[in-house]
Amino acid sequence: MPTDPARPPSPGPILGPSVLVGLIGAAIQASRTPAMHEREGAEQGLRYIYKLIDLEGLGLDAAALPDLLTAAGRMGFQGLNITHPCKQSVIPLLDELSPEAAALGAVNTVVLRDGRRVGHNTDWWGFAESFRRELPDAPRRRVVQFGAGGAGSAVAHALLTLGAGEVAIIDQDRDRAARLADDLCNRFGRGRALAGPPVAEAVRAADGLVNTTPVGMAKYPGMVVPADLLRSDLWVADVVYFPLETELLRVARRTGCRTLSGGGMAVFQAVGAFRLFTGLEPDAERMLRHFASL
To answer: Can you give the pTM of this predicted structure?
Structure first.
């Protein structure tokens, strides 16, 4: 019988403890996260089960989060990953936040233990680690970021932690962009972030740009920036990883830009979440190889 390439066979008999976790989000059937977690769990001798809880497939929206969290706790889940559109709306439902999640106002990982729900954010570290590895010498005086949601909050935090001088936040919701810019300035210093500059003006002044919106996903095709604004001395990053080469990255490469796909962020946020769910240290290099094979 042919094997499913998205779920490679386990490396051997699994005799260790069981781990049950899941992912809550919309339109997540193409997610590679379950395969990454389950394979790393198998490599570490765990009975690791990762379930997709697709709001779109279930005909639900973020209003269902209270019931879903309650059900997960009752069914013995050790944790949940949280993705679009729930990274911020999940926060009022939690008992505690890690310092990073509290600062970012976004949660992508919830640990369920002893009847408590503790929210964490591994997205920011995932993006930072990917950037350090793939664009270590990229200039960061001015960066334009499209998106001010949960992923945007994490990426902007990562960029400023990595030494970006200024991050310009552009979002369809101008109030949300302004709130994020104010929060970043409060944490990193006055003038380190600004909201809502004209797109053309911001891109002309930038060393690089990042898409943190869902635009570019299979369900949301297109680009957040007009192609004629791209130039060869820009670096361009995208947090979308399905498809791995979004239209933005494809056009940017054709223009001569250095690019960073969402694959590295996807792997390293999973590394952080696996550590939180299991208390074990995952093999990041092995998880990178597995992601590349999917």
So the answer is: 0.90
